[in-house]
Amino acid sequence: MGRLLDNIDNPNDLKKLPMDQLPILAQEIRDFIIETVSSSGGHLASSLGAVELALGIHYCLNTPQDIIIWDVGHQAYAHKILTGRRDRFHTLRKFEGISGFPNRFESEYDVFTTGHGSTSISTALGMVAARELSGNLSQRIVAVIGDASLGGGMAFEALNHAGHLHKKMLVILNDNEMSISRSVGALSKYLNRIITAPRYNKVRKDIEGLLKRVPRFGFRVIRAARRLEEGIKNLLVPGMFFEELGFRYFGPIDGNDVGMVVKTLKNIMDMNEPVLLHVLTKKGKGYSHAENIPERFHGVSSFNVATGQKLSGYGEETPEQKRSFTNAFSEIIIEAAGTEKKIVAITAAMPEGTGLDRFAEIFPDRFFDVGMAEEHAVGFGAGLANAGLKPVVAVYSTFLQRSYDQIIHDVCLQNLNVIFMLDRAGLVGEDGPTHHGMFDIAYLRQIPNMVIMAPRDEEELKAMFSFALSYDNGPIAIRYCRGPSYPVIPPTPERTQVVLGKGSLLRKGRDATIASIGYMSNIALDAARSLSDEGIDCEVIDARFVKPLDLELITGSVTKTGKLFTVEEGIVSGGFGVFILESIIDKISKGTIIKNIGLPDKFVEHGKREILLDKYGLSARKIKEKIRTFTNA
Question: Which pLDDT does position 314 carry in this prediction?
């Protein structure tokens, strides 16, 4: 007998199954996800926990006419499998394969491309308002949000507005950390069975209708009855907050009991008001290694299913080459904090990802995880700086853009000494367009008082962090990529000493100047060495600073060579190369050739970082080809 999963190509096939077969299908989907992710890598623990939830939603809704919006989207693998992508699931996160997140250009079942948290209720409410204006009142719109995402300010703003509009919509709170409530008992289940039952709600509405006709006293009786109902509910279940915002609250229920999910959804999904269903799920459900250490299996590379151990995948690389900037930063900040007592570290729900987990263990009183709230992280850092401390905000580049107003208003306008450590700046690889750190140079370099640096290896990272600690004239951002941090050039006094706005001449040449920044300086050097074999002699500059620029060094080199090629792992429009062009255009001769090499004005797809660098002209081979073309012209 074959798997049930082999016969599921879309949600209509799912609906043909009797309820008692859904748990079997859930286990098959779970096994399928584990098998695939062990090879491809991806977000495992969250997706394993949400299998029954995805099954229940699709079983009850008429998708894609009804709409599901997954917040963040790293829990949506079962959703992808159930919506026609089972046969392509083996291409998960691979170049030209299916995305690891919902992607509206991939499937009609993915209404939004999502990868950042706390957005789903806002976007769902927008679609609810559009539904009301279009008259399509039968359409169901569901936002699925995790407990971590609910902590973001945008989610609270949306809940407040949804309660005010009081339109029909369903928010499912997927609580996989039990951070809101552990109230899952027989009485709670019984109470929710009563208050979600259609008969109960019909009688409730009928009685309210009759009481409204009673002069003077009818509305008072209704209010008293509601207070009694809500008082009992709030004594037993944690829904008071949501009810006060204007939502009908139901739960918590066991989100890994697909029968319970289906029965509850069928009872509540057609209520003509905002409804919040609170479900409790277990991260890593069904895979013991992920259940025991869910944080380690949140985002994984390939691993051995039997042991849970990571597969290396590094080929012949040395241990030094495996070392990342994140690893290096972790050691650097711990060492610095041992002597500098004013250092405090801030992260937005990413202690492991940013390398601050060890800092948190050693200096717990000086570590702050603010949750999935980057805006607050930056504002909080501003307060710490204003009080005389040295706050270090460690954040992925893609998530820092969520706090743009706070960077301008709370930090730069006040000219406060906040240090931003921007991890994964540039192309991050398999997580794709929602996670690439492409834009930080372009948006940060425009802000007054902001200083921007980029190290090409961990020796420079250490020197730049030391400089940032000693700098007392405003904020500093240090951006570094997902690539290896191993030293390319041995440490020298010149390398370990950082002077504001001073770059470094890595290689002398006569035919062209390559001005690069950060890790791309290593690739620019490789391209220059290769070009020298063909008789083209390139001068290579590591600018070190995006802002302020070392205009004396760059202008002097370009004046000598007559050709300038800028190289950056960021968007060209408004970026490092354009900044150089704006700054030197009136200082160089008219015939100077200037070409900016960087990422195009588009959202870059997912795929291995090396593949994407080559596709978009940022490999040593592609840089060499471009320089050769213009140098020989």
Answer: 34
Catalytic site residue from 93, 233, 248, 283: 283
Per-residue burial over 533-558, b = 16 or more CB atoms within 10 Å of its CB, e = otherwise: eeebbbbbbbbbbbbebbeebbbbbb
**507 labelled catalytic:** no
Which helix (H) or strand (E) segment holds residue 326: the answer is helix 325-339
Query: Which single residue is written with the structure tokens 């995305």?
Result: 99
Query: For position 180, what pLDDT does the model report?
Result: 41
Quote the CA–CA distance of 501 and 547 in Å, as a whole number: 7
Quote the pLDDT of residue 186: 55
First vs last C-alpha separation in the chain: 67
Q: How many residues in the chain? A: 633
Q: Does domain 5-178+248-289 have CATH number 3.40.50.970?
A: yes
CB atoms within 10 A of CB 284: 25
pLDDT for 297: 77
The runs of H, that is alpha helices, within 237-318 are 240-244, 258-268, 288-292
C-beta of residue 505 within 8 angstroms of C-beta of residue 554: no
Rounded distance, CA 480 to CA 455, Å? 7
Tell the CATH topology of 320-479.
Rossmann fold (3.40.50)
Report helix, strand or coil for 563.
Answer: strand
Helix (H, G, I), strand (E, B) or coil at 386: helix
Whether residue 539 contacts residue 505, with contact meaning beta carbons closer than 8 Å, is answered with yes
CA-closest candidate to residue 481, choices 620, 331, 610, 318: 610
- Give me the helix-helix angle, 22-40 and 258-268, nearest 10°: 110
Core vs surface per residue 497-507: b (16+ CB within 10 A) or e: ebeebbbbebb
pTM for this prediction: 0.88
Catalytic residue status for 317: no
Query: Residue 407 gets which letter from DSSP?
Result: I
The one-letter code for the residue type at 555 is T
Degrees (nearest 5) of the Cα angle 624, 630, 633?
130
Phi first, then psi, for residue 565 (nearest 5°) are -120, 120
Q: Tokens representing 377?
A: 């992280």
Residue 87 has a pLDDT of: 94
Residue 216 falls in the annotated catalytic set:
no
Marked catalytic residue, from 30, 248, 282, 402: 402
Mean pLDDT, the chain cut into blocks of 10 residues (633 residues total): 87 94 95 91 89 96 96 92 95 93 95 92 95 90 90 90 95 73 48 59 62 61 59 57 88 92 95 93 84 77 80 47 87 98 96 95 96 94 97 97 97 98 96 95 97 95 97 97 79 81 95 96 95 95 97 96 96 96 90 94 95 96 94 69
Q: Which residue has the tokens 């909080």?
A: 380
Q: What is the CATH number of domain 503-632?
A: 3.40.50.920
Please tell me which residue in 80, 168, 374, 539 is annotated as part of the active site. 374
Question: What residues does CATH 3.40.50.970 cover in the chain?
Answer: 5-178+248-289, 320-479
Give Cα separations from 511 to 17, 252, 522, 537, 551 (angstroms). Answer: 70, 69, 19, 5, 19
- pLDDT for 192 equals 57
* Cβ-based neighbour number of residue 65 at 10 Å: 11
Task: Give yes or no for a contact between 98 and 85, defined as CB atoms under 8 angstroms apart.
Answer: yes
CA distance 426 to 307: 33
Q: What does the pLDDT read at residue 39?
A: 86
Q: Within 427-550, where are the H helices?
A: 440-444, 458-470, 493-496, 520-532
CB 57 within 8 A of CB 68: yes
Query: Where in the chain do CATH 3.40.50.920 domains reside?
Result: 503-632
Distance CA 398, CA 440 (A): 8
